Recover the amino acids of this structure.
């Protein structure tokens, strides 16, 4: 996925995860980070700079995460759809629909202290 590919490159700049507000300076910083990506990430650098306007939009996005730690993923997901002319918010929405996050709440009842129904049936025999 394009978002994972971009996230891998942006991890070179862990300081992005400490940016807690979106503004013009953040927009400029994101472009600067993209320009400084090492040659190992040349394709990602070219992609980000080819869509520099979208990258700047992402840096000024009002939905920018206010809690440290998710900013790199936010940028990567926002930029994943730039090739198809998706806005940052539409790109993130598309990813949410097609790659659901792992839920903190288990989908099935997993109480270790209760026996499963198959065990209780065996015990009755």
């Amino acid at each position: 996925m394009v978002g994972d590919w971009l996230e891998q490159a942006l991890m070179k700049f862990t300081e992005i995860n400490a940016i807690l507000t979106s503004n013009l300076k953040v927009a400029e910083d994101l472009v600067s980070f993209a320009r400084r990506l090492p040659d190992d990430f040349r394709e990602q650098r070219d992609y980000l700079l080819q869509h520099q306007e979208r990258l700047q939009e992402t840096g000024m996005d009002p939905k920018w995460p206010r809690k440290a730690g998710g900013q790199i993923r936010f940028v990567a997901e926002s930029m994943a759809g730039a090739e198809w002319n998706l806005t940052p918010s539409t790109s993130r929405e598309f990813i949410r629909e097609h790659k659901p996050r792992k839920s903190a709440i288990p989908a099935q009842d997993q109480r270790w202290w209760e026996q499963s129904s198959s065990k209780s049936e065996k015990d009755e025999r």
